[in-house]
Amino acid sequence: MVLALLFIFLLGVNGLGDAFKSLGRGLLDSFFAATENPFIGLMVGILATTLVQSSSVSTSLIVGLVAAPVSPLPIANAVPMVMGANIGTTVTNTLVSMAHMGRKDEFYRAFSVATVHDFFNFMAVGLLLPLEMATGYLQKTATWLASFLTGFGGVEYDSPIKGALKAAQKPLKAGIHFITDSERAQAVLLIVVSGLLIYFALLFLVKVMRGAMNSRVEAMVSRGLYQSPIAAMIVGIAVTVMVQSSSITTSLLVPLAGAGLLTLPQAFPITIGANIGTTVTAFLAALAVTGPNAIAGVTIALVHLLFNVTATSLIYPVKRIREIPLNASRRLARLAVRSKPLAMAYVIILFYGLPALFALLDRAR
Question: How far apart are CA 98 and CA 86, in angstroms?
Fold first, then answer.
């Protein structure tokens, strides 16, 4: 039952990504090529990733634009966008946590696990964006590494899970196509259907997992993950490479936390591993790019990898620093439990409102 419900949940998340892609791809291309301001680049990265619900998609688009024969996007402009993509990808699991609003304790656990991803990425950007602007650390290091990595050829990894999801989506999309010929209307219908799939899958998934509270599952999770953060990070990396989406990996943690099977300290290293794992697919694909700007594509893919590895090295090893995103997510979760509209406002303003406003103001200059 859990496996079936997880598949339905993943089908919904995948459908949302496809729908937003079809609605927003033209907008993304114009946004990516539009700005030189690092802060605006950061906002554009956030907005682009929230539109397509996947940092893998937005960073792949950035890699493609940077590596294009006549590149509309210099590497220096792309670096803040990659950082923004890291923040934008956290919106999916935060939205998923809203399914637990009906039960205060569940919602507190789910929302804190969802938003710890937000706060970790905010800290990472807060530390590394000023460093990058002052020294060019990420771009220079990535450029140096890229000089050793080009010429080997690349890999396109086809996830079997992603293949199964695409096969399951075909009849769903065919049914929507039968209802309307308008691409925009099809995308909207797919968003609605995918949202319903996610909602009902989570609803029943939480009930099933709540029933497992007193079984050995809880003890196994505690022993396997809480005592070994490195193992948990490796789990996060491996799962994300398999499903090719950090949003899916971190969203799967939310119902586990809501059901009480996973604590915030246990989920945190898995989330960090997902951040690193999401860089692998774009990096391998970038190695396969050919042409005069091929090395630029590899460079920006390496920037993404270095950003996450450096952030992990700076934040996680020191307990006092590691506790900052954990405590911030707990405080925000307590506020969200007291005021549900505040939780919704947090998502709408932070992930959609502010980035859209800054991007539009920049385009209007």
Answer: 21
Place of tokens 């998934």: 205
CA–CA gap between residue 4 and residue 7 (Å, rounded): 5
Number of H helices and E strands in the chain, helices first, is 17, 0
321 vs 202: CA distance, rounded Å: 33
Whose CA is closest to 255, among 16, 6, 64?
Answer: 6
**Which candidate, 285, 328, 333, places its Cα nearest to that of 305?**
285
26: which residues sit within 8 A by CB, 6+ positions away?
none
pLDDT in tens, 321-339: 999 999 999 999 999 999 8
Torsion angle, CA of 149/155/156/159, rounded to 10 degrees?
-110
Q: Are 33 and 39 in contact (CB under 8 A)?
A: no
Q: By the 8 A CB rule, do 351 and 91 touch?
A: yes
pTM score of the predicted model: 0.74
- Which residues in the chain show pLDDT less than 70? 9-10, 13-14, 16-17, 20-36, 52-54, 56-57, 60, 64, 68-72, 149-162, 198-199, 202-203, 205-227, 243-244, 281-282, 284-294, 359-365
Closest CA to 234 of 272, 261, 266, 265: 272
- Decide if 262 contacts 209 (C-beta within 8 A): no
Question: Using alpha carbons only, how large is the chain's radius of gyration in Å?
Answer: 20
Contact between 58 and 87 under an 8 Å Cβ cutoff? The reply is: no
Considering only CA atoms, which of 67, 125, 96, 100 is closest in space to residue 275?
A: 125
Sign of the CA dihedral with 324 first, then 325, 327, and 332 last = positive
| Residues recorded for the chain | 365
Place of tokens 């937003």: 20
pLDDT in tens, 212-265: 544 444 444 445 455 578 888 888 888 777 766 777 788 888 888 888 878 899
